[in-house]
Amino acid sequence: MGKEGIRYAAKVDLEKPPTEQTCLHNRWHPDIPSTATIKNNEVVKIECIDWTGGQIKNNDSADDIKNVDLTRVHYLTGPFDIETAEPGDVLVLEIQDVQPLQEQPWGFTGIFAKENGGGFLDDLFPKPAKAIWDFEGIFCSSRHIPGVRFPGLIHPGILGCAPSASLLETWNKRESELVSNCKHLDHEVAKLPEPRNVHATTASADLKEKIGKEGARTIPGRPEHGGNCDIKNLSRGSKVYLPVHVSGAKFSVGDLHFSQGDGEISFCGAIEMAGVITIKFSVMKDGMKNLDMKSPIFVPGPVEPQFGPGRYIYFEGFSVDELGKQYYMDATVAYRQSCLRVFEWLRRFGYNDYQIYLLLSCAPIQGHIAGIVDIPNACTTLGLPIDIFDFDVSVEAKVEKRDLGSCAFASE
Amino acid sequence: MGKEGIRYAAKVDLEKPPTEQTCLHNRWHPDIPSTATIKNNEVVKIECIDWTGGQIKNNDSADDIKNVDLTRVHYLTGPFDIETAEPGDVLVLEIQDVQPLQEQPWGFTGIFAKENGGGFLDDLFPKPAKAIWDFEGIFCSSRHIPGVRFPGLIHPGILGCAPSASLLETWNKRESELVSNCKHLDHEVAKLPEPRNVHATTASADLKEKIGKEGARTIPGRPEHGGNCDIKNLSRGSKVYLPVHVSGAKFSVGDLHFSQGDGEISFCGAIEMAGVITIKFSVMKDGMKNLDMKSPIFVPGPVEPQFGPGRYIYFEGFSVDELGKQYYMDATVAYRQSCLRVFEWLRRFGYNDYQIYLLLSCAPIQGHIAGIVDIPNACTTLGLPIDIFDFDVSVEAKVEKRDLGSCAFASE
Amino acid sequence: MGKEGIRYAAKVDLEKPPTEQTCLHNRWHPDIPSTATIKNNEVVKIECIDWTGGQIKNNDSADDIKNVDLTRVHYLTGPFDIETAEPGDVLVLEIQDVQPLQEQPWGFTGIFAKENGGGFLDDLFPKPAKAIWDFEGIFCSSRHIPGVRFPGLIHPGILGCAPSASLLETWNKRESELVSNCKHLDHEVAKLPEPRNVHATTASADLKEKIGKEGARTIPGRPEHGGNCDIKNLSRGSKVYLPVHVSGAKFSVGDLHFSQGDGEISFCGAIEMAGVITIKFSVMKDGMKNLDMKSPIFVPGPVEPQFGPGRYIYFEGFSVDELGKQYYMDATVAYRQSCLRVFEWLRRFGYNDYQIYLLLSCAPIQGHIAGIVDIPNACTTLGLPIDIFDFDVSVEAKVEKRDLGSCAFASE
Amino acid sequence: MGKEGIRYAAKVDLEKPPTEQTCLHNRWHPDIPSTATIKNNEVVKIECIDWTGGQIKNNDSADDIKNVDLTRVHYLTGPFDIETAEPGDVLVLEIQDVQPLQEQPWGFTGIFAKENGGGFLDDLFPKPAKAIWDFEGIFCSSRHIPGVRFPGLIHPGILGCAPSASLLETWNKRESELVSNCKHLDHEVAKLPEPRNVHATTASADLKEKIGKEGARTIPGRPEHGGNCDIKNLSRGSKVYLPVHVSGAKFSVGDLHFSQGDGEISFCGAIEMAGVITIKFSVMKDGMKNLDMKSPIFVPGPVEPQFGPGRYIYFEGFSVDELGKQYYMDATVAYRQSCLRVFEWLRRFGYNDYQIYLLLSCAPIQGHIAGIVDIPNACTTLGLPIDIFDFDVSVEAKVEKRDLGSCAFASE
């Protein structure tokens, strides 16, 4: 890097709609042409819009959440060609910094309606809701969830290299099979390719049609490339190692989060924002073979917020659901129970259920798999940091219901 | 506490078989008479034998692991009556210390045979195996897994209060239903009451027969009382809050671990030991209602080993299994994948698969639920601390196969 | 804060010389008119130039360091009137963020010549030297000290409220007495008021003359207001509590550091930079009395880099100097010895003495007062984090002299 | 280590007076015969009595502190011959564990009378006082300082190898010179050899006389061998590297502390106890040359209590004393000021000055050298952990004087 500052590999313009941005796409497909080239060992800045492309506004109604159009997400910045990267290499990213865009110092957390998007607890909490967060340097707070304030563990929710054509085929095949096998269920189990609202600045009309038919949705992360992994610890200073599947890697990034809790439980659960990420890219030749790599790995940076282990309350969860049904070693059911325990805890202080749901999704909670072998009960723990509250929520706290306002709801 | 030291509420004698010990039991049942009484706010020491009751020896063969008799486990110390505790109260435990017994400064980690106990990865690694760990103050090392040494995050694997008769009935009913519903599966899904080898020092023959018929097995933890939760962070200094279901609480503890990784993946996966735990007991009247408590909670102590966030390698896992099958939001499948990634990583340095399986089970690895909303893929992460190795296993390491010996196996 | 971003209370222009900047001053004096007003509970951004006002350049010669004009330092931004602040109040600052200026992503560490500024070890290392650091997000590295790279613990070196007239008199009196009492020494012991190069944008010519005669120099911190305290831990998220001595507080800030080690031993020892600091100001009425406050206090933020306690080598120092002379309980002598031990350590790997001196000044080393009561030896410790090096400098390291280049020196 | 537990290299008997113990000495001298031999790479346990040899009792009077006989201290266990150690080698210690003796689960902190021992603040607080601490596993609390409880950072206050005859001569010479040069001072500046109450179990009467004349006192630590360094961080898991000056090393250890704050400011300031330390010894041949070692170094263990950086209040101190006198770069004066600020803080809550003095000495406070270059003011910081109090002492706390009892004082 010279004295003149770090080069921007991509910039966005918040005044324009996402469809007019010149460096975005919203599907994974190997044929999307690269928007720019980055040198091996180069450090660049990359700007990103929020994952919904500005659908969610800084106001006190959740109507925008209710009506969100999920065929349009996620708007990723890229793809970028990384010089010298070839299939079988590993792309090494050092995330040197992540920042909100200066001109938009706020973000949002949403709970989608059960019938449009849903979330981890949508059967219990089916209504759309929203919280707006104001950024105060490294901290954030929300008029919709008073009494809480915390430092962000800022990170990208999505990063990955493009799949090869054959990998894309594998994805589509296995997710289609799941859909076929689950027709009896009353909810969606996977997002298959969707022609509506495909966006890829760099693609021709014909190509867009192809992408619409074949392009993998950005909703799930996938083992072969990472993608939408939503790992809260990929913060400043982290190094991420990504498998390369196509020549040039075709790296994309987006879905920046100011903060997120383990699980991102409300789905739109992080503090979603527009921002800029500074990444150093380098190519590890033949890395997949040398590291015997099948999925991405990472090494966190050294600057995680530190609360001290004794400043968390941990809630146990087991794979017996709230109706008393016994599941066999199901960590998902167990973690759901750990989540529900936090509702019971925080309700006592005056928060409403949707405030708690929002908070659990975006605050730096720790979700652990504790025991996964004592049949039939998986055991998980969920650690709630008590120092994010400006009143005492510890076990010793004197409990009294406070007036803690409300999150934003949709008009009926 | 006076000047004369802390009172022992129970002592064991390692020279005697468990069946001759006077303060043990191996089933959960409300009718097991208390072995001793502890005052409210009293601090006591409680000795425990290892969970198998001495079945596993400090030698270089895994024959004992292969032939382990699981109808006899877990040997717990108790039950203890805590004065003033009544149903609806919360029993507060401060775990002031946990230590191995001076006369037995070693422990074991085992992999049970697929056909006798099994573990999280028994379909891939079906053979019995064992590692013996020598304790060196706060550290441990093993002749069966050279090149690794780490401080123990010492803790009890099991603690809980006795169930009430009606709670016991609930447990037996729901676990029986699971067994009924899973008859098509080729493996055991739950441990129902088992009359063989019931042990309860304080019980009459008639009572023992009743316990054999009704007593809940100690293998799973259960949401209503905790029990076998296997939470690695319940270490020195932790406070644990347990629901009380019977008069006097009838608290029991056992299954002490010198160390364990999140998940305890090989089932006999912690470093199992005989030891002594120092606990302060106090009763929070009406705690279950006041805390709206449905499952135990805890606050960790301040002395967890600290490696620094940048001293872990994190492995991502998604709910697609190793055969390419897509599961729907299954965190258990995802964590299994995170585990498998560590095998691939460590094999390159010369460890055999069973050494890795043992190590993953007992070393202080961090298992997180990262994303649980992006259908259909749950995402987990598993953090491997690199400072437990005395050679470089980082991403930058020069990889060469070392002679790293072997764990103990069974004779054919 | 509204949606439109945080207000700038002061901006600088790096294209202009400091004397043409409109919001700076370089002496402490109660009569310097305020440059702007800040509301109680307001959050503002404040830009600062580097402490020397651009005297030091991004090049490979230390001539600028050799010839630095110390009558001109430190250029502080301010003073700011904080609404409602009155003498006796405490001004509460939350440091929400500190960043380098985007257009100048580099900083410098200097060793002043013994005859012009000097430093903690100038009798041993009298020559001027310099290292330029490039900022890479939260990290920095230097072409002048290869092999090392670390995250910055970014902070302001100077912040404080203006002294009252009588406090200023106290300062001048006690420092003059020291100068009088130390005439026999061969070095400067304090910086008394200096008319040359007084800068105060907002002051008239007459006032400037007065400031030149009376204004306290910014070189030392002072107990009554803090000022140049050079505390490395006043980083993002910290709260600082400052005594207020004049109406409006007249707060100033400057001397921003990308990183610094405990002691800042080479004097120009931090990584000095131009930057922007985001502060929330609030006034605690009668705080000095209520807190019984005589000197500033602070509470660090939650985001310090974490290396893990076992990733430091600690060097002991005692109050016996390198010639074998015994001092009585002198922690300054002891810390000097701790510093010298690091030279001996790092020389073995190929660094030259001036590189080590620079590194010790700016890297996140931990300087502790260990024992201060065992006559006649004070004992200090200095912790060197080994993870800032990209080769092994641990006790177990295989030592070999590397080619580690050189820092910048002055032409002869 | 075999299966039978770790060998004791020395045991003490608390029923006997120190003069009848068989493995103790209380001066540093190369001729003291070894009490036992330890193999290279061997792990042993070593028992120690408290530093005063039982002079201080578990009661509520400080008469014993007032009348303490300091000619008898410190009682160290040793010396031990370490096989293969020769001058020029480095003795590597891994401190695998430190524990109080089971039969004496309490310790003491004392403030010596100004006229008999004194301490860092004896001019302000000249009276003798005492607090007794009860050990509760890893925690301690005191009936003499209610409202506070913390985990111990348990460690040895003294460890070192015997000086050679010529090194001993150097010590005696330089400390005598200091005494000669300070005759004008009204207080003792160093402890010269003292024939009274020399103890060395293994020495003949003639040798004892020689030791009395020449033997170095144990009060100060010294740069060439460490000794009484009082470093709170030499806790479980630490590795210490000590220079060897005589054949066999002649290692001694004692002055075990359950906890101590940086500075150990009241002199008898740690929580002093009898205990047992488990150490692995290994010899690094030619280590002094290879490491260019002039003073001991150490690497802390991984299990320090973690409070989180934001759970400390830091108090700034500068080298201007409480009478307003300006000192030149004197870190000792500055740290004294940091200490005094804590008195002002805690008095507001109801503690008396001697309780605060005791607490500051033994609680895990962090003392840092912040700035040591801005003439004439050294700046130190002292971090007070707020989580050791069971009521709120933070800046935001509602201050009210509580009834916090009293420490033990001497009868008049």
TrEMBL record, chains A, B, C, D:
Query: Which SUPFAM superfamilies does this chain map to?
Result: Acetamidase/Formamidase-like
The record's annotation in NCBIfam families points to: FormamaseFmdA
InterPro entries in UniProt: FmdA_AmdA, FormamaseFmdA
Bilayer-crossing regions: none
What highest taxon heads this organism's lineage? Eukaryota
The Swiss-Prot or TrEMBL record annotates one GO molecular function as: hydrolase activity, acting on carbon-nitrogen (but not peptide) bonds, in linear amides
Full protein name: Formamidase FmdS
